[in-house]
Amino acid sequence: MMKLYLNATSPYARMVRIIMLEKQLEGNVELCWCDPWSDDEALLRENPIGRIPTLVTDVGMAISESLLIALYLDEQCSVRPLITADRKEETLHVAGLGVGLMDAAFSTVISAKYLNNEANDSVLSQRGLREIQRTLEHLENNVECYISFETISIGDIAVAVALDYLAFRLPELGISNSYTKLEDWRSNISKRLSFKETAFE
Ligand SMILES: N[C@@H](CCC(=O)N[C@@H](CS)C(=O)NCC(=O)O)C(=O)O
Fold this sequence. Notes:
This protein is α+β, with helices and mostly antiparallel strands. The protein has helices at 11-22, 41-46, 66-76, 88-114, 123-141, 143-146, 154-169, 175-178, 180-189, 193-196, and strands spanning 2-6, 29-33, 54-56, 62-64. 56% of the residues lie in helices and 8% in strands. Residues 1-81 form the GST N-terminal domain. It comes from Colwellia psychrerythraea (strain 34H / ATCC BAA-681) (Vibrio psychroerythus).
């Protein structure tokens, strides 16, 4: 049995959980809920980096970094491949944008929490907001080319989770009103069971 260390609010952990469900691997993975911010002992024993998501494989090896875990899980079973040969470049392009969006949003949220609200006016925070804006514009203008409606790829999952995370943690940015094609796409993909079962709360 594999183990997945996670919490309920990490976009990276949610992405991995969705992948686990889409790949029908939930019976093979025990969920280990933890708080990575309070130096969880069990997590630190498995992984000195102490971040979630951390997947501990059947041979006891801990893998961190959500995209590496995604690649590993994708190879664990042939159900619903997350990267297909015919759309490989688009998929990897979009996956990088999705995780980049998560990084920019997450660092804004976490610096406001651990530093103070003035952190939001800092140069880095302003750069993060511009990254978010540029990336959302790019996705909005290319939604038909990059994002599929019928199948689901690692790129789709990363972008959809990043959009949900932005709506959850930074609602003041009003993203759902500004990028309407992306919003339609997000509300469609969010109907999947894997998204409903893992919704941020
Ligand atoms: N690049 C990593 C980011 C993971 C990450 O930043 N996780 C956060 C929670 S969202 C964490 O565990 N932070 C605890 C810490 O940094 O001590 C990934 O893709 O998995």
